[in-house]
Design a protein that fits this description.
The two termini are 22 Å apart. A hairpin with a 4-residue loop joins β3 and β4. The longest helix is centred in the N-terminal third of the chain and has 16 residues. 40% of the residues lie in helices and 15% in strands. The chain is an alpha+beta fold. The strands form two sheets. A two-stranded antiparallel ribbon has the order 1-2. A two-stranded antiparallel ribbon has the order 3-4.
């Protein structure tokens, strides 16, 4: 089971990869995006995610993070928003 910060980091990584075509965030990106104090904090959280089997860090590869266990649903349900004139995810 993940704590709140670990969950936030994993969700951020998945969202970043989805938005950037599969490119993973750097530790600095994760620290800023999750409002964490330092890259050292990110490193400790990433260590836990890796030992728990949620991610795999690919050695010798810049930003090499592979998500093994996603906590996000595979299929999101959308609805049409008349004001915005677009599909928006249901909460």
């Amino acid at each position: 089971m993940l704590d709140h910060r670990q969950q936030k980091v994993l969700t951020y990584i998945e969202s970043y990869q989805a938005a950037s075509g599969g490119v993973s965030p750097s530790f600095e990106d994760i620290a800023k995006g999750c409002q964490l104090a330092s890259k050292g904090t990110v490193s400790r959280l990433m260590d836990h995610l890796e030992t728990s089997g949620y991610i795999r860090r690919i050695p010798q590869r810049w930003r090499g993070i592979e998500v093994l266990k996603s906590t996000q649903p595979k299929y999101k349900v959308f609805r049409w928003d008349d004001e915005r004139k677009e599909l928006v995810p249901l909460k």
